[in-house]
Amino acid sequence: MSGEFNFIEKIRRRSSQSGQRPAVIPDLHLGIGDDTAVLGEESGRETLITVDLLVEEVDFRLDYAVPRWLGHKALAVSLSDIAAMGGDPRFALLTLGIPPSLISGERNGAEHFWEEFFDGYFELAERHGITLIGGDISAVPAQMTIDSIVMGHSRKGHAVRRSGAQQGQAIYVTGEIGAAATGLRLLFAGERANQSERCLVQQAIRAQLAPDPRVEFGRRLGRSGLVGAMIDVSDGLAQDLHHICNESRVGAVIDAGELPVAPCLDLLGLEQAQRLALALEGGEDYELLFTAARAVEDQLREMAGPDLRLSRIGTIVDQDSGNSAILIRQGDEHPHPLKVRGYDHFSR
Amino acid sequence: MSGEFNFIEKIRRRSSQSGQRPAVIPDLHLGIGDDTAVLGEESGRETLITVDLLVEEVDFRLDYAVPRWLGHKALAVSLSDIAAMGGDPRFALLTLGIPPSLISGERNGAEHFWEEFFDGYFELAERHGITLIGGDISAVPAQMTIDSIVMGHSRKGHAVRRSGAQQGQAIYVTGEIGAAATGLRLLFAGERANQSERCLVQQAIRAQLAPDPRVEFGRRLGRSGLVGAMIDVSDGLAQDLHHICNESRVGAVIDAGELPVAPCLDLLGLEQAQRLALALEGGEDYELLFTAARAVEDQLREMAGPDLRLSRIGTIVDQDSGNSAILIRQGDEHPHPLKVRGYDHFSR
């Protein structure tokens, strides 16, 4: 039949090849191919749902994109939201707005682009047990758009909200911060992905183009019931911590020296203050930022395992209504208010 | 704070003003404002989920759009998918890609556009008891994009699939067909919406710009358990019936004289054959097309009520593998194969 239905049929088949057979997936009663997908429900459980829009020229550029990594990232950003609720991601829907240059059948490499894109998408999906159950596609006149929807589960009452931070809890962040922002600057400066190299430049670019969401650790944190508040670092650590403080009506004091600033930031040759600002304000790290009692830190580290860095970066304090919600301490200095800046889609 | 967060906060408030208070909505455990929304589950129930992408210059044009109706349509197209499963729509998420001309704060009418847009969106949401629980927004360089997600429920095993049509069942369609396609032609020819007029031209334009999904009737059909297969007429009746035949492995015979062709098609001055083709191939009617035993027709008509037209347009027959799946009969003629054409996003 037509191009549009061929394309959908290809995705449907590709999805089945990934071992994503509806018949054997619990709770999947109907996947791609009808007016809606149909999922089973279970009492004592909650459904989590999130959606993320990625737009060409705003969130990515085709001149530096690695199609496989773009497919990976489309799913990764939404998996990260489920992880940030302590949930168990299960199902995905994907909407694609496809520009003329990427409509296949024109011998323009589009076929290859989509094969790579879906290789990246399904590779990540399989790794975490996610099944694609629906979506929509449309031609678009210009920029490519990707809308990524992920659904997951958590035990009733166990979803970790932004509003649960309490005075006295420690603040933790996984991995390193600032690498994705560094990667973006390097891409803008003309560097490109080169999968054969393992240098800092490539680490930064990979952090930007193919972030690894903390799915398994998020799931464990949710089940443990040990976490106060959690969010993923997508808008920049300062802004995301501000969201937690705001929703929890608390303040925070951060130790600058404890921030796990990615080593690749050194590539940019910034002065110390600018380097710290980029680490705090650069977005898209997709690390988990959460609060928990100091007393359970050993348990947290055991859950994180030997391969996932976990840094205690500060403490939740009483809200001081007269001042900024977040203070930052550098060395022995008196803490000073942290300016909260992050990414704003409308300010560009 | 920033423009992006202001915009989201406005939608959140607008959503609450609509009486959409999370505290009093069953199963809504957490709405807009965290990493994900959180919904309660219930055993014996199924979750239905659908997503529809609407793209400026492809699915609508701002030069003829009525902002209020665009907001209405964004939700309507997804409600229609839930109705087509016989489900009960409950929750919505909305993703907006906003072009520079519609970013507010520039005294360019954007503020007014979004007020009207959300008036239309929430008016329809309230009418059917839908709560907005999440979404995403981004600036886009050029065309506006809308991705509309709706979730609903049905009793376990009661979702009506495309694959349930059986030989001997009658084929029914609600309302009239071809009005939306007529409206689109009139808009392309320079006609515009004028809410004060009630003429055929305005009926056709309204069918295109502000379709009314058959939410309540769909819900009743699903609960009744009387329906074999169902789909909504979005790609054109011929193509949508083809989907049913394909998934159910059956054929169909249609009586041309029984098709509820919208009177406004006469405005286009087409010859009989072209008129019939437009009614069968013109998309976006958002009527329900379904199969059921003739024996329950009285019950179906009672469920439809006095205000919703219900037409029996043909019969499901055995699949004749040598021929086209769908035959059409005109008057006393021998039935002939129906060409299946509909809207293909990639063929333009």
**Amino- and carboxy-terminal Cα gap of chain A:** 43 Å
CATH architecture of the largest domain in chain A: Alpha-Beta Complex
Low-confidence stretches of chain A: none
- Name the chain pair whose interface involves the most residues: A-B, 77 and 77 residues
Q: Please tell me what the overall shape of chain A is.
A: globular
User: How many individual domains of chain A?
Assistant: 2
Number of helices of chain A: 9
Biggest sheet layout of chain A = 7 strands, mixed
Any overview of this molecule?
The structure is a homodimer of 348-residue chains. The longest helix of chain A has 18 residues, at 110-127. The first copy, chain A, is α+β, with helices and mostly antiparallel strands. The first copy, chain A, has helices spanning 3-17, 67-83, 110-127, 179-188, 200-209, 215-224, 237-248, 272-281, 297-304, and strands at 28-30, 37-40, 45-55, 88-98, 131-139, 145-155, 170-174, 227-232, 251-255, 288-292, 310-317, 326-329, 336-337. In chain A, the strands form three sheets. A seven-stranded mixed beta sheet of chain A has the order 8-10-7-11-9-12-13. Chain A has a four-stranded mixed beta sheet with strand order 3-6-4-5. Helix content of chain A is 32%, strand content 24%. At the A-B interface, helix 1, strand 2, strand 3, strand 4 and strand 5 of A face helix 1, strand 2, strand 3, strand 4 and strand 5 of B. Strand 3 (45-55) of chain A pairs antiparallel with strand 2 (37-40) of chain B.
